[in-house]
Amino acid sequence: MRIRFRSIRAFVPAALLLSAAAMTVAPAFSQQGAPASPAAQTPPQPTPATTTPPPQSALKTPADLAASVAASASKEPDYPDPRSITVGIYGLWSPDSPGPDIRGGQIAAYDLTYETLNGIGRPYKIIPQFEFGVPVTRTGMVYAEIQRYHGSADQTLGRADFIDSFSYNTGDSISSTYHIITGRIYLDDLMYPHKFPVARLRFHSIWGMRYVSVTQTVDSATEDAVAGLGGSSFALGTSYIFFPEFGAAMEYAIAPHVLFRVDGAGFGVPHHADLNETSGTLSFRKKNLEVLMGVKTLHFKTSPYQEEYEIGTFITPFFGLRWHFQ
Questions:
Q1: d(CA 161, CA 88)
Q2: Suppose 146 and one of 59, 183, 205, 231 were both cysteines; which one would form an S-S bond, judging by CB atoms 3.0 to 4.6 Å apart?
Q3: What is the dihedral of CA 248, 212, 133, 297, to 10 degrees?
Q4: Partners of 262 in beta bridges
């Protein structure tokens, strides 16, 4: 009995200690072992920054950029005014001058024959010119033009003369006329700077062919009266030049529709035939119509190796209209 009592007395304090320890440890154990709520299990995630993708049209490859630049460049015209087929008409005004001369050539010099008649005709006041142009390349225009010069004069010979196979005497009354038909076809091409749209100051090359035909007549009322036959002293002479032309032009665009241009072209062989021409032009264009004004010069000399040759220079202010077909 004593052993059992002692065992019970020892068990009671031990039970009390175990109970107190269990009460102390249970809350902590229950907190660790109890399943956590979903809100407590998943920590709050940071909200990702939303980025709007660029539109598909904004994504350009280098090829797209090059095509865009080319497209924008192609929208800008090469020239301020579009080029097209053109037709022009001009009126060249001729101031008073004695006109071209007939000169004795090399054959006459060998024969010791005087065959010169200076100032064979004051040119008529208005000289017509017609022009046609067509673009053939991005930079080049081909033009064709034709002019007609003519005039007449009366004079008294100061010495005996032999002109176009007829002999005239000193003191004869001489009437002379001439007709000059000249035309050319040429390429006017951009030379420098070769860029688009074209610069305000630009230079062109000129490559062409020109034809000059000279026909003159001479007669004497004095000789007709001596012969008793009208027209017996009539003499006719013809000559021509067919030469290439090479030249250059300078253009300056004063404003988008106002252009100033100077040009010159020609060709010649020393001691043979030669020709040259120059012009200065100020033009204004409004849509299809272009108005031009300026000054032209034309100089020619036929071959001096003939019995007679012609030489002349014309300086002519002009006014013209050019129509552009679009």
A1: 43
A2: 183
A3: 50
A4: 250, 280
Can you identify the CATH homologous superfamily of domain 79-324? OMPT-like (2.40.128.90)
CA-CA-CA-CA torsion sign (77, 78, 81, 82): negative
Amino acid at residue number 269: V
- Residue-wise pLDDT for 247-296, tens only, equals 999 999 999 999 999 999 999 999 899 999 999 999 999 999 999 999 99
- Per-residue pLDDT tens for 158-181? 999 999 989 999 999 999 999 999
Q: Compute φ and ψ for 101, nearest 5 degrees.
A: -120, 150
Cβ(268)–Cβ(303) below 8 Å: no
**Domain segments of the chain: what residues?**
79-324
- Distance from C-alpha of 239 to C-alpha of 259, rounded to nearest angstrom: 37
Query: Tell me, what's the pLDDT at 76?
Result: 79
* Amino acid occupying residue 304: P
| Max intra-chain CA distance, the chain | 201
**Minimal CA–CA distance to 250: which of 322, 192, 299, 196?**
192
Q: How far apart are CA 128 and CA 132, in angstroms?
A: 14
Sequence-distant (≥ 6) Cβ neighbours of residue 282 within 8 angstroms: 258, 259, 260, 261, 292, 293, 294
pTM as predicted: 0.75
Identify any residues that bridge with 88 across adjacent strands, giving them in sequence order: 131, 322
